[in-house]
Design a protein that fits this description.
2 copies of one chain form a homodimer. By secondary structure, chain A is α+β, with helices and mostly antiparallel strands. A 5-stranded antiparallel β-sheet of chain A has the order 12-1-2-13-14, covered by helices on one side. A 5-stranded antiparallel β-sheet of chain A has the order 5-6-9-10-11. Chain A has a two-stranded antiparallel ribbon with strand order 3-4. In chain A, β5 and β6 form a beta hairpin. The radius of gyration of chain A is 21 Å and the shape is globular. Chains A and B meet through β5, α1, α4, α5 and β14 of A and β5, α1, α4, α5 and β14 of B.
């Protein structure tokens, strides 16, 4: 399985992904799931992938080779549509982040066209992605893409996306994520969310890949592979565990504890 | 959906269940999912159910009417097997908690025999249950039952079970549950686990049903329906949210923050 987060805030973007893939618990490997395209001074795009690894790799293969938009893609671009509709684009050349999302969606659809029928009869066509970044002259944006190749965009109300094994790490994000969060705080929060997931699910594993991008910088702010022995991660993990245990110990006991038992319902 | 927890500790047993059922988000009802059989001075048994409500109700119907063990059930009972193999038992008459688990499993299998084929063609036969309690002269035990009617028992290494929408509330249990936990603490911990789930998943809802049983008491210690306006629940929820926010704010920022960006990998 996989766990990836994309967080959009006023100061910028944080993307975090684990690296574990498995086909059953006895066939576990490490694969990069966070990919970054940077043209310093001009663009930074990050893409994380979850689901079937063969599908993700085919999608990235198409994006690397370059692909053409379909007429229905061009139709939604309005005045931003390329003047040469037959041009093939990559994530290094596509002119806007919205078009980058369309391009990734198109790649997903092309792979579905090739692999979908045989996968459909077996596991289904399972893939989801988070794409975020900024291209000069355009706003910073964050999208989540589905297996159908369509996508939604993060907003102030929902400033983060998760893909993969997302439930374990969702409560902490729901509690603490907000659209004004500092980038350093967003990194901490993302790591806490991953930490909860690692603790409860074997199929998500270290090392983690991190991308931090400060809005309007057009170059990567921080990129890091966080290994199992990362000193900061350990300090954070230990401090958090201790804080939680203290907070929990400090909660009052229920005040209805000494009340008599409620009325028994009849034996079912 | 559903969320239920059963926690076994040295001092006793805590069981907690939500009450929301739904067929789609626009057809939501409240049903009791925690059922208690008490014969004061002799036995306390609690049963929580998740999955298809029609299956759960049929299982409880069979248990209420009484049912016979199958020969394969009798075969695993050893010297505890009933001397009259044709006797029908209910959870009020079955002599041991292990036999109670076998009886619930037998009821699940009987319902599967009746409803399984038509359900199999549709949603599948989805049901899981947690059964815990004590009968005089016997130890306190906690079992989780599967749709196949088989079951596992909680141990000191794994002193709790969850059924239903379990992932949101698992990290906090994994962090703080231990086999020596006081009953008051276990109630707090169970409520925190439910609180995380409620925050992230609409399909789990208040009110909650709680059963507390102190080992070797053979009567219910505490039984309570916790409603949305429960003052203690609100105080606990607010205190926990505040503690978490403070703990999070107090974590140090990453010390690799000011390091230069790591080596970019080649565009994918």
């Amino acid at each position: 399985m996989t766990y990836c987060i994309g967080m959009l805030s006023e100061p910028g973007l944080v993307m975090l992904a684990d690296t574990r893939t498995h086909a059953g618990v006895d066939n576990i490997s490490t694969f990069r799931k966070l990919h970054v395209w940077e043209t310093p001074g001009e663009r930074v795009l990050g893409l994380t992938t979850a689901g079937n690894l063969a599908i993700s790799q085919s999608v990235r293969g198409l994006l690397r080779e370059g692909l053409r938009f379909a007429p229905e893609d061009l139709a939604v671009m309005g005045p931003d549509a390329p003047t040469e509709p037959d041009t093939a684009f990559t994530l290094e050349t596509v002119p806007t982040v919205f078009q980058a999302a369309l391009l990734v969606g198109r790649a997903i659809r092309n792979v579905y066209h090739t692999d979908g029928p045989s996968l459909g009869a077996q596991d289904g066509f399972q893939v989801s992605m988070i794409l975020g970044g900024q291209i000069r002259g355009r706003p910073l944006r964050l999208f989540q893409l589905y297996a159908a190749g369509n996508f939604v965009e993060a907003t102030r109300d929902t400033p983060y996306f998760q893909i993969g094994e997302l439930k374990y790490g969702k409560p902490i994000l729901d509690r603490l994520m907000h659209p004004g969060i500092r980038l350093e705080e967003a990194v901490k929060l993302g790591l806490l969310s991953v930490d909860s997931t690692l603790k409860s699910n074997l199929s998500v594993g270290m090392p983690l890949d991190l991308l931090v991008y400060r809005r309007d910088d057009f170059r990567v702010t921080l990129r890091r592979r966080i290994h199992e022995d990362d000193a900061y991660y350990h300090r954070m993990h230990d401090a958090w565990s201790r804080h939680l245990a203290e907070a929990y110990a400090g909660l009052p006991d229920p005040d209805w504890w000494d009340a008599p038992p409620g009325p028994g319902d009849r034996p079912a």
